[in-house]
């Protein structure tokens, strides 16, 4: 049985309208395979056009490492008129006995995409 729990830091924001909040409680990573961790990225206002932004995982020193988290560096798009989009980070399961691990999500470079 794996004893580590993985949680997400929730104080992440980008620019003046966007923030990312981890969805749900911390989860066990499991003994094998992957476990999906979702973030809801929210805008405090709607836009009449699609808005794209970059997002990437952030590992914290002494906590989760590159073998625990499937690193993400990607682009997401918030459709025109919407205020939320979900992005997912997958965590690798293992049988190591380890302390709880945290990782974060960094948002950047938001821009009009249509």
Structure description:
The structure is a single chain. The chain is mainly β. It has one domain: CalX-beta domain (Immunoglobulin-like, Sandwich), CATH 2.60.40. It has strands spanning 5-8, 12-14, 18-22, 27-28, 34-43, 51-59, 73-78, 84-92, 101-112. It has a 5-stranded mixed β-sheet, with no helix packed on it. Strands 2-3-5-8 form a 4-stranded antiparallel β-sheet, with no helix packed on it. β2 (12-14) and β3 form a beta hairpin.
- Our Rg estimate from Cα atoms comes to 15 Å
| Sequence of strands across the biggest β-sheet | 4-1-9-6-7
Specify the number of helices: 0
Range of strand content: over 45%
CATH fold node name:
Immunoglobulin-like
* CATH structural architecture: Sandwich
The stretches of 5 or more residues where confidence is low (pLDDT under 50) are: 9-14
**Derived structural class:** mainly beta
Q: What is the level 1 CATH name?
A: Mainly Beta
Question: What's the CATH H-level homologous superfamily?
Answer: CalX-beta domain
Distance between the termini: 48 Å
SSE run = EEEEEEEEE
Q: Mean pLDDT, rounded to whole units? A: 78
Indicate the overall shape. elongated
Total number of domains? 1
| Strand segment tally | 9
Major beta-sheet overview? 5 strands, mixed
Helix content: under 10%
């Amino acid at each position: 049985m794996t004893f580590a729990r993985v949680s997400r830091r929730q104080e992440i924001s980008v620019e003046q309208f966007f923030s990312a909040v981890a969805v749900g409680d911390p989860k066990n990573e499991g003994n094998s395979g992957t476990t999906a961790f979702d973030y809801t990225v929210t805008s405090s206002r709607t836009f009449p056009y699609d808005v794209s932004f970059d997002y990437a995982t952030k590992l914290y020193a002494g906590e989760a490492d590159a073998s625990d988290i499937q690193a993400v560096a990607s682009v997401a798009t918030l459709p025109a008129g919407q205020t939320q989009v979900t992005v997912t980070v997958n965590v690798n399961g293992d049988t190591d006995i380890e302390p709880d691990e945290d990782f974060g999500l960094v948002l950047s470079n938001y821009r009009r995409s249509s």
